Amino acid sequence: MSAVTKGLVSAAAIVAAAGAGLWACQTGLIKLPLSPAAAMTETHPAASGLVVYYRAPNGKPFYSLEPRNTDDGKAYVAVRASEDVSFEPRPKTEAVARAAASLGDKKIKFYRNPMGLPDTSPVPKKDSMGMDYIPVYEGEHSDDGSIRVSPGKIQRTGVETVEVGRHPITRTIQAPGAVAIDERRVAVVAPKFDGYVVKVGDITTGTHVRKGDVLATVFGQAILDQAARLLIEQNSGFMRSDDTFTPPSLKGPGGVVGASRRLQNLGVTQEFIDQVKRDRQVPDIFTIRAPISGDVLERNWSDGQGFKQGDVGFRIADHSVVWMMADVSEGDIALIKPGQRVKVTMRAYPGRVFEGKVTVVYPHLIKETRTAQVRIEMPNADMALLPDMYGNVEITTGGNANALAVPASAVIDSGNRQVVLLDLGNGRYEPREVKLGRTGDGFREVLSGLSERDKVVVNGNFLIDAESNLQSALKGFDASDTTQPATEASQ
């Protein structure tokens, strides 16, 4: 490249750089003082806000929360809130002005811990996590015992209030239970005479039988003897009883009754007696029929088997009505009365609810479990409930009368005293000690301390209670601060 060409290229580069600089200055990207006077006239906004911390005067990365000096005696420079580095958008000047106007001439009394700890400071400071202490102004604490919470905090914490009203105080007692057979619906087939089993019907354990179905045919010598005597008495016109003859003039209105009564005492049906009288002959066998409809629990007879008087041949149970035997804890027994409605859910039928009623509260306690048995009668038309099934029993107790009550979540119970937070409006809440009565499902009866239509806090009350404790602690610090100058003056 020739010398002339090099000169032209250098001149073009200088012109381009000058043009770029001129454009940058016009657009404001680069601000350079044109003269020392111009540099002296440029001003920066004055620092405002509270002193956040102190930095080293020589530009070194040393900071302090309190005023201090360097090793060579130079004082640390105070950094105010407007000078602090923040990655969050700063509030607009108008908003700051409005906030300052709302505070007016209120004086900052002290600064409190931002985490709610009972720790205050007369000057601005930060806690161990770098959070600023919150200023407390004059007049923010009330002297009537109420608690003041800012609307923003109420909204963020989801504080909810409800009106005090009247509600039925009911309590649902839950207890485990098991299905049992109704003792009144069990029938036993046990002949009152000696004999032999001729033929057992098509009956097995678990078979459902109806009243009158044939269970077995048996032979009994006592039945044959009394049937033959019935025919003799009917043909002779005399009534024989206990081996004595009675003249016809002393017969009862039913005619011959001596042998008939003996047959009835032996368990013979009236149908059999009428058949003997009608056919005038004695059958060789006697048919035993089911006394009730139900399920066969026991079958102890077989064909050709002999039996003695009183031996149990069959045991039959009617399952159309069953019992639920619930084990209720000792502390709940006093609330249960016969006639109360009961709901039962079974493990075998999820989602299905059976209904019944309390019939008997057993008069003794099981000492090993400290529970008492409660008998519940339940219809079982579809035979869904089987003996020894497990279920969960729910017994609703309590009267129908409405009582002044509050939701259980509204009560702050310390053990010795019960307190609710009364909503006074405008973010003010008053702790109110109450006397409580019965406890129901979700409600607690109020005997004194509240009136109908009062509003109480049901959600967020523990936060307000913590705020109350904090404000009480702050008041204590405030009182100590007010007495401190007098002490110093006395010294």
Commentary on this structure:
The protein is α+β, with helices and mostly antiparallel strands. 23% of the residues lie in helices and 34% in strands. It has helices spanning 3-27, 36-41, 93-103, 151-157, 221-236, 258-265, 270-279, 461-490, and strands at residues 51-55, 63-64, 77-80, 108-112, 120-121, 134-137, 147-148, 160-163, 165-168, 171-181, 186-189, 195-200, 208-209, 214-219, 239-241, 244-246, 286-289, 294-299, 306-307, 314-317, 321-329, 341-346, 349-361, 371-379, 390-397, 402-407, 412-413, 418-425, 428-439, 443-448, 455-459. The strands form 8 sheets. Strands 7, 9, 26, 27, 28, 29 and 30 form a 7-stranded antiparallel sheet that branches. It has a 6-stranded antiparallel beta barrel with strand order 10-21-24-23-22-25. It has a 4-stranded antiparallel sheet with strand order 11-20-18-13, with no helix packed on it. A hairpin with a 2-residue loop joins strand 28 (418-425) and strand 29. Helix 5 (221-236) runs antiparallel to helix 6. The chain is rod-shaped. 18% of the residues are buried. The model is unreliable at 22-42, 91-97, 240-256 and 482-491 (pLDDT under 50).
Give the SSE layout:
Layout: H1 3-27, H2 36-41, E1 51-55, E2 63-64, E3 77-80, H3 93-103, E4 108-112, E5 120-121, E6 134-137, E7 147-148, H4 151-157, E8 160-163, E9 165-168, E10 171-181, E11 186-189, E12 195-200, E13 208-209, E14 214-219, H5 221-236, E15 239-241, E16 244-246, H6 258-265, H7 270-279, E17 286-289, E18 294-299, E19 306-307, E20 314-317, E21 321-329, E22 341-346, E23 349-361, E24 371-379, E25 390-397, E26 402-407, E27 412-413, E28 418-425, E29 428-439, E30 443-448, E31 455-459, H8 461-490
